[in-house]
Amino acid sequence: MIAELQVLPRPSGTDDDPHAFVEAAIAAIGASGVHHEVSALGTTLEGTPDEIWTVLRAAHEATLAVGATFTISVIKLAEGVDDGGPTVDRLTRKLR
Fold first, then answer.
1. Sign of CA dihedral 57, 59, 65, 70
2. Which terminus of the chain has a smaller tally of CB atoms within 10 A, N or C?
3. Structural domains of the chain in order of their starting residue, each with its CATH number
4. Claim: this prediction has a pTM higher than 0.85
């Protein structure tokens, strides 16, 4: 399964670190050990469905744990049953 996650915490950070709450979500993803790629508008994750759902929740909750008053998470999912389903490589190899 692959997923793309965009977290939109409010506020997004502190005066000293304006993206701190977003970075907490990225840190939770990194700590999970799942393959991921951070981009300017979201993070793509790749793993088993159980891994992905667990990491999505952890990333969302990480923003709240560090001080966001609320968070909206935008999630896109892709999963298949034939030939192992979509992967980041399969979807992007022609473009790289």
1. negative
2. C
3. 2-95 (3.30.70.930)
4. yes
What DSSP letter does each residue of 45-93 carry, written as one string? EES-HHHHHHHHHHHHHHHHHTT-SEEEEEEEEE--SSTT---HHHHHG
The token pair at 18 is 């304006």
User: Tokens for 50?
Assistant: 């159980």
Radius of gyration, CA atoms only, the chain: 14
Q: Cα(51)–Cα(43) distance, rounded to whole angstroms?
A: 15
In Å, what is the CA distance from 70 to each residue of 14, 77, 88, 89? Answer: 14, 23, 30, 34
Express each pLDDT in 38-57 by its tens digit: 999 999 999 999 999 999 99
